[in-house]
Amino acid sequence: MQFSVDGFECGGHPGEDDIPNMILLPRAADELKIPFVASGGMADARSLIAALAMGAGGINMGTRFIATREAPVHDNVKKAIVEATELDTRLVMRALRNTERVLNNRGVERLLEKERAKGRALKIDDILDEVAGVYPKVMIDGDMDAGAWSCGMVVGLINDVPTVKELIDRIMADAEAIIRERLTGFLDSVPKRAAA
Predict the structure, then answer these.
(1) CA within 20 to 30 Å of 79's CA: 51, 72, 140, 196, which one?
(2) Rounded distance, CA 22 to CA 19, Å?
(3) Rounded distance, CA 186 to CA 76, Å?
(4) pLDDT (0 to 100) of residue 184
(5) Bigger pLDDT: 4 or 187?
(6) Coil/strand/helix, residue 91
C-alpha cells in the first residue's frame, strides 16, 4: 500500500499548514515506514528526480494529467491549464479550514470577494454558488468562469497537451538524461574522498 504526501503546491486541498514539498517530502521520509508518492508540483522529469531524491517512491500528477489528450475534460480546461502561470492559482475556503487551491477565474473572484466581506463569519452556504456543482459546468461544459475547480501551481510548468504515453515516455527519457548527463557528471567532477 502506498500513500500520497501532498505539498502546499498541490491543486485541491493542501492542508492547513502551508508546508511545501521541499520540506514535507524529506520529513515524510524521516517519519514514515511505508512507501509514499509525492503530490503537488509534479509535472516532469525534474519533479520525478527531486521527489525520488527526497525519499518518495514516485510522483502523482493531477493537474499535469488533466492536460493530456485522453483526459475526459472539455478542451477549454486543457487550454486554460496551458495558458496559466504559477501565479494564476488562488487559495479559497481558508476561513472554513477547508483550504483549496484553484485556478483563478471570475467565479473564484466572486468567491474571494464574499470571503473578504464575511471574514471569520463565513459559512459554506455563503459560497455554495461558487463551489457546489461546479465541476460538471467546468469539466464537461467548458464554462471556465463557473466557479472554483482544483488546479495546482504546476500549471506554470505545463506548456502542451500530449498523449499520456508521450508524457510518460518524455519524463522517463528526460529523467535518464538528467541522471546520466547532469548528476553523474556532477559526481565525476567531485574529488574522490579517501577511505577512512
Answers:
(1) 51
(2) 8
(3) 42
(4) 81
(5) 4
(6) strand
Main-chain phi, psi angles of 42, to 5 degrees: -95, 125
Q: What are phi and psi of 161, to 5 degrees?
A: -130, 80
Read off the C-alpha cell for 184. Answer: 553523474
**Residues 6 or more apart in contact with residue 169 via CB below 8 angstroms:** none
Long-range contacts of 91-95 (CB under 8 A, 24+ apart): 91/14, 92/127, 92/131, 92/148, 93/127, 93/131, 94/16, 95/119, 95/120, 95/122
State how far the Cα of 183 lies from the Cα of 163, in Å rounded to an integer.
28
Give the pLDDT mean for 97-108: 97
Q: Is the four-CA dihedral 99, 101, 105, 109 of positive or negative sign?
A: positive
Asked whether the beta carbons of 78 and 66 are under 8 A apart, the reply is yes
User: Do 145 and 105 touch, CB atoms closer than 8 A?
Assistant: yes
- Using CA atoms, how far residue 78 sits from 39, 73, 159, 163, 164, in Å, is 20, 8, 10, 12, 14
Tell me 70's DSSP state. Answer: T
Least Cα distance to 89 among 79, 102, 72, 73 occurs for 102
- Give the strand pairing for 36-39 and 100-103: unpaired
- Whole-structure pTM value: 0.90
pLDDT at 111 over 70: yes
Stated as kind and residue range, the H or E segment containing 38 is strand 36-39
